[in-house]
Amino acid sequence: MNEHVQYLNDIGEPFAAGLLEYPEGPLPMTYCRAYRRYYETCPIVYRAGAPLFPAGITTHPYTAVTADGTETKTYVYPHYAHQYWINWPCLEQKDARAAAIMREYATRFRYAGEWNHSMLNYKRILAEGIDRYEQRLLAKQESDFRTALLDLIEGLRTYHRRALEALPAMGAPEELIDALKHVPFSPAKTAYEAVVALNFCLSLDGWDNVGRLDSILSPYYKGEDMRPWLRCMMLSMQENDRWSITLGPDYSEVTRQALEASVGLARPLTQLRVTDGMPEELWELAAKRILEGGGQPAFYNEKAIQSRLKGRIPHLTEEDALEFSGGGCTETAFAGYTYSGGTDDNINVLEIFEKYMHEQLPHAKTFEEFYENFVTLLHAEQDIQMATINAYWNRRAETCFAPIRTLFVEDCIDRGIGWFQGGARYTFSIHSDSGMPNTVDSLLAIRHLVYEEKRYTPEAFLALLTAEDPAFYAELKTCPAYGAGDARADALVKDLTTRFYEHYRTGKLDLGLGFFPTAHQFTRHVREGAKVGPTPDGRHAGMPEADSLAAVNGKAVKGPTVMLSGAACYEQKDIYGMAVTNLSITRKYSPQVIRALVEGYFALGGTQLQITAVDRNTLLEAREDPDSHRDLIVRVGGYSDYFRNLTDQLKDAVIARTLFE
Amino acid sequence: MNTQVPPITGHVLNIQHFCVDDGPGIRTTVFLKGCPLRCVWCHNPESHEAAAEILYRAERCRACGRCAALCERGAHTLTADGGHSYDRTKCIRCGSCVKGCRVEALEQAGERQTVEEVLAEILTDRVFYATSGGGVTVSGGEPTAQAAFTEALLTACRHEGLHTCLESCGWCSAEIMRRLIPCTDLFLLDFKISDDIRHRHYTGVSNRPILENLALLKEHHARVILRCPLIPDVNTDTAHYDGIASVVNKHENIEQIDLEPYHPMGIGKSAALGKEAAYTHTEFLDPAVAERAKEYLERRVSVPVRISGKQ
After folding, report:
1. Domain identity same for B97 and B117
2. pLDDT tens profile A628-653
């Protein structure tokens, strides 16, 4: 054991110590050993009486025991997306030497790129058990890859044993201890064992995403009330700030129980795949949940999504296509078979437009010239974006290894290739854009005021805009806008978005199938908007951009049906990542109206819709007095959270969002 | 010689999408200009006159002077202190000023539109009518006051396979009502005040023709929802509720009662039209009054009683 490893262990940083056991690789050994050391020492997190283990916050910082028996906080630890995380300020404060050691290796272990999400192949884990994974590995030829994953399984086995030893004294029911004696190392035999195994393995992946919860559990279901178990798992997902479950299109009693179990929770995000045959009972339950507030579930247009994905991925089988799930906030994945990046990168269309407008508007003779040159510039920016992503994907493959995901996502073991290295059956980059609706409305205002009505010279237009002149802004708000029933405006949306998203087909991703754009904002529209000055859509400097692909906030003056018809003109056929559409309603419409809006939008070709029911007064009250509205959940741009948790600026953005009286 | 018949046009006040209180499902409601009644509580005073009217909202005006430059009659002028003055006595409602206004301080209520134009806008929501069992509702003002246009529009909607509702005060000739029956799937007929003297006092007309038209609709087995506004100090008394019950019990074609609680949203519009509001209640009707009316009626009729805006 080298000196650094000893030192890091002594001060209670076992994961960091593990990373340095094989600091020069091979890569799988470096990471798998670190994970093993983590599982050998990590705390056993459990709430007395809970039906599942773990239950509670397993993500970090956590407490470790040092060599002399004292407890200490640990600041280098596994991370679900990055594979490890170093809390530098805390580590620095805790132990300067440890920080210096880790900094020395920082280049070696630097995580390249942004977030990513996954869904393990829970169906296979439940059906075969982890022991079978070990056998699969042993059947393969000796290699660093095989050795590393076997090392990881050893760590998991130790963790499992430690839990079994600790749980009786922690108030665990016998039923749970009995189940854990079988799962997840042996196949699950009952519905309860299936949920225990699912919960255990989900926690190994940082509680990231379940995938198709109803489809995973249905084979084990024999009339049990699974809701308390599901609730326990969902609560842990929420406590750990993790993501989603997907339901349908094989609707069953488990679908219903899952919808009921998640009532009142901000997480997991619930994604409901909608077919023509979705039972009336589920529609009613889903609409009822929407009307209770919280924006759950989000609706997914099964038919449209399937046909588009099959068109984009020629070798996508029927069976795998059925595993479609929205991971993270909404990012497309085939559960158990995918590495799809996450928010690999964002292109701020409005920021590009703003710069272009100031430089080129005075020189463009016609609107057509102004518009065409902008599209050309946009394509050049997209080329840079794709090249950047490709470069850091390659860099990440050289510096990072995902132990849990490599073990449990197909076909990494069969191919002997890591998850980050392109071993998954389907590998593609999901990335996003922001500010597109604002850009479209800005183009419309320029066409109207400068080129058609000729009310202003380009110079005067830009001067008034830059000064944020109040009278000029009042005028901007009366210009044609997308999503307000103006056919010419909606035609411009169609043209720009078609050309923008189609261009992503031209990119080459060395490690995968290519670039899959997603129009989802998460909370990015606030951050990205802060970078952009005043824009002709009537947006003031620094204000948020549009929170989904639908009409800019406050512009959908003809109500939701017209707004959705406009959103259907936003070309979604090439948005494989997911085309998120937000709709806020401020009145308790009947479940039939909710259903009609979803079905109508999907009939027009929309792929995804999330409806948040809130009344404006409630939001205003909550803005003033957050603590008296602790239960208020809102959904923004593919993301949902408690209203009180939002920044003040995001709270204002939610309030200003199109609200239909 | 040009033998082409000019297209039928109507004075349209507004076309409103996503209406869920004007008949079944999701509907588009076409509000027409002109009404023979002058209900004191009316929240759409801009719908009273058949011709276009100009709304002026002083709080939005920036006194830029564009309207003054465009107005040939001198109705709009800039004042010495830099403000804006609008003299309605000189205004011929040509709408030139509205075209010049860039901040929506001036707005024209009412526009002549052809049946085709209105239909095109209605049809943009066709998919939502199909998914909700909705359709189109023609309202006002008073749509029977533009009978030819209303008939043509409803007939055109029917040809497109849309469900049609007519929302009317019922104050029109029997002949007009007869013409509208075949193109209307469901009538939303107002019944405001049972006592005729009070009806005349508060609406300006007798309720006798309304009752006669109700009888006519019954004779033709036309489906009717009776819409009853609840106006504080005007008709929230049990005598009127008894009157409603009596009408409903005499007409088996009335299948539902919609109670419509008063709201004060129209008060600001009167000011924008340069008119004085005749009824100045600024409070919404106490919800308990509507609930009591509902309960009272439910004990006396066998059809459902609904409070509008609640689902």
Report:
1. no
2. 666 566 655 445 566 766 767 667 76
